[in-house]
Amino acid sequence: MLLSKACIYGLRSSLFLATYESGTYVSIKEISETLDISFHFLTKILQQLTGAGILESQKGPNGGVRLSKPSSELCLFIIVEAIDGTEIFTECVLGLKGCGTQKPCPMHEKWGKKRDDIQEMLKSTTLLELVEKGKAGNLRITSKGDFEWQ
Prior knowledge:
Number of helices: 6
Strand content: 5-15%
Number of strands: 2
Radius of gyration: 17 Å
Shape: elongated
Strand order of the largest sheet: 1-2
Oligomer: single chain
Structural class: mainly alpha
Order of helices and strands: HHHEEHHH
Helix content: 40-55%
């Protein structure tokens, strides 16, 4: 798997939050139950996204988390960067130190192109774009398959 489970959950959670009206706080419990993600694991992921400035949190009975910016301004790359870092876009796919144009591995040329394509796709895709696509096609963001787009 290219992205960690934490990163995948961070992407799904951010997409879920993007379905809400701007400024609406959503409880972590609701996100956890809707997306079928462990509450404690999700809490750690959302703390990372909050620390990176992607989310804002509020404590209390009406608390929860929300996107810090409009979904049109949040691309997938910054979420991946906040959770998994950017090493995936610079490291050798075979894990070899010093892999590069001077001393490439057998996968260097093919992986370099695909890696760049993936990075560009993540940078050019916003949460809003995915919400619109999800609504239009009634696409799913949970394994349960019973998610209702708002």
